[in-house]
Design goal:
With 123 residues, the chain is an all-alpha fold. It has one domain. Helices cover 83% and strands 0% of the residues. Helix 1 runs antiparallel to helix 2 and helix 2 crosses helix 4. The longest helix is centred in the middle third of the chain and has 34 residues. It is found in: Cell membrane.
Length: 123
Amino acid sequence: MDGLREIFTRLKRIIIFILAIFVLGWGFTSYQDIFAGLIIGTLFGIYNMWILVRRMDKFDRAVAEGSKVRSLGTALRFASGVAAVAIAILFAEHIHLVSTVIGLMIPYILLLAERIIYHVKHH
């Protein structure tokens, strides 16, 4: 089974492709506020996933060494999500709130889909 860092590397490539599509949608359609929300949300979502991967590495090392286990950064990831929503609310005329929340979930949906595909192929 792949490590979380390898999975994250694969997902980053997919997310960069998705972000490119969102940027094209923002530039060439009349739904600029929706695509702006998706872009902001996805950027904050990948940041949250990066924090999770980094904290999981520290967690694994702490468990292997038998030292004290620290937090997985839940509060920091929650604050990041709140910041994305606050930006969408602050610039409501330019950024669609619901699409920002959807963008926050895109990395996690891709992670779930990647794991399902992995298990279907290997079992």
